[in-house]
């Protein structure tokens, strides 16, 4: 990702950044570039329209299912009633935690 970010940043100023350009930029912030990956990146992107590549990538990502609905299902099935009892339990736990912190001498600013 660092190599790609450096390439994209340098492409704003120069049409086809070289390996030396990228190595120099990364070296200024203390990052050593892997020469094998760098050469592969440059050979893959050299002469291509970056905005077109980014658009193609966005289209491909849009077709990938994100799984948002599946992630919400376990939370709903976790046994928490819809009546809103879970927040009350969280409040009690928070109060108990605060009290236990005070018991241990951590309530220094009270």
UniProtKB/TrEMBL annotation:
GO terms for biological process: cytoplasmic translational elongation. InterPro entries: P1/P2_N_sf (IPR038716), Ribosomal_P1/P2 (IPR027534), Ribosomal_P2 (IPR044076). Residues 86-95 have a biased composition (Basic and acidic residues). GO terms for cellular component: cytosolic large ribosomal subunit. GO terms for molecular function: structural constituent of ribosome. It holds the Pfam family Ribosomal_60s. Keywords: Ribonucleoprotein, Ribosomal protein. Coiled coil: none annotated. Residues 63-110 are annotated as: Disordered. Residues 67-85 have a biased composition (Low complexity). Belongs to the eukaryotic ribosomal protein P1/P2 family. This is 60S acidic ribosomal protein P2. It comes from Malassezia obtusa. The lineage of its organism: Eukaryota, Fungi, Dikarya, Basidiomycota, Ustilaginomycotina.
């Amino acid at each position: 990702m660092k190599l790609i970010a450096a390439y994209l940043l340098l492409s704003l100023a120069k049409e086809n950044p070289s390996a030396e350009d990228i190595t120099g930029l990364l070296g200024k912030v203390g990052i050593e570039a892997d020469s094998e990956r760098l050469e592969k990146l440059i050979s893959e992107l050299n002469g291509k329209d970056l905005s077109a590549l980014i658009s193609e990538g966005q289209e491909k990502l849009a077709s990938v299912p994100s799984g948002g609905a599946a992630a919400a299902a376990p939370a709903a099935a976790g046994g928490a009633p819809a009546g809103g009892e879970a927040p009350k339990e969280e409040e009690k736990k928070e109060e108990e935690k605060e009290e236990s912190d005070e018991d241990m001498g951590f309530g220094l600013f009270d």
